[in-house]
Amino acid sequence: MRVLGFITKRPIILSLVLGLIVSSLSYFFQPLFPYHSIAHRGASAYAPENTMASFQKAVALGFDFIELDIRMSKDQELIVIHDADVKRTTNGEGFVRDLTVDELKQLDAGSWFHPNYSSEKIPLLSEVLDTFGGKINLLIEMKFPENETNMTEKLAHTLYEYFEQGLDPSTVKVQSFHIFEIKKFHQLCPEVSAGILLSKPLDMFHLASYRSFASFLAVHYRLLSKSLVNQALFFDYEIYTWTIQDQPLFTVMQKLGVHGIISNQEKKKTSKFTVD
Ligand code: G3P
Ligand code: CA
């Protein structure tokens, strides 16, 4: 009571305390916007990343998208793997670009995660498209396309082959940190939504000019704020965020109003306020 009396007799402190209460309450009651759940390298908290097992797990868990990374083999095939070299996620050694598909297919891409996955192989993009195209949406990240001969052209060409066989272009999105390659991809394949991965802020001028070829921004969660979301929405971008691992961050991102959350795991449905 004495504290209350102290505060109410001091208008400045009182207004500060009231402001704090109002802003906390308004955050608490902010709506939780629905979002696309995007399984980062597949459902990679539960199965080895970027393998058919992790993609299968994402489908089983009901994710809306799988996110996957592509690189090129020595014989110019599109390969699904995150790192430039195979050491971390297989029992082999060497750079992906120095190994042929036959050599890459010898490797065990699952035992590093758990012995149960010892039969997992590094997938080709075509294998992922064959098995998962049309079953779940795909978010394909081109890894360092600027360092590869014709990765962007090869991806566009490959996707068109699948579109001709009936795959719906609206079920595929392509992203990269390399803005020029995303621009090139959009020119080659305008039917597919293309996006820019961001780990640094973009000014309004660049936000405006990139919108002619990019329809979404995939933003590192530490960079996201209400003002960045509002700027992106002003230019009609979709906003995805990566890589959300802590459960409370799902709620923070939903309150910011992002369209997609890229995560290795599901959001646990513990809160009665959750709408998705
Ligand atoms: O989709 C965004 C995210 O995948 C980018 O980071 O290193 O996991 O490919 P990284
Ligand atoms: Ca990625």
Automatic annotation (TrEMBL):
<dbReference type="Pfam" id="PF03009">
    <property type="entry name" value="GDPD"/>
</dbReference>
<protein>
    <submittedName>
        <fullName>Glycerophosphodiester phosphodiesterase family protein</fullName>
    </submittedName>
</protein>
<keyword id="KW-0812">Transmembrane</keyword>
<dbReference type="InterPro" id="IPR017946">
    <property type="entry name" value="PLC-like_Pdiesterase_TIM-brl"/>
</dbReference>
<feature type="transmembrane region" description="Helical">
    <location>
        <begin position="12"/>
        <end position="29"/>
    </location>
</feature>
<keyword id="KW-0472">Membrane</keyword>
<dbReference type="InterPro" id="IPR030395">
    <property type="entry name" value="GP_PDE_dom"/>
</dbReference>
<feature type="domain" description="GP-PDE">
    <location>
        <begin position="35"/>
        <end position="273"/>
    </location>
</feature>
<keyword id="KW-1133">Transmembrane helix</keyword>
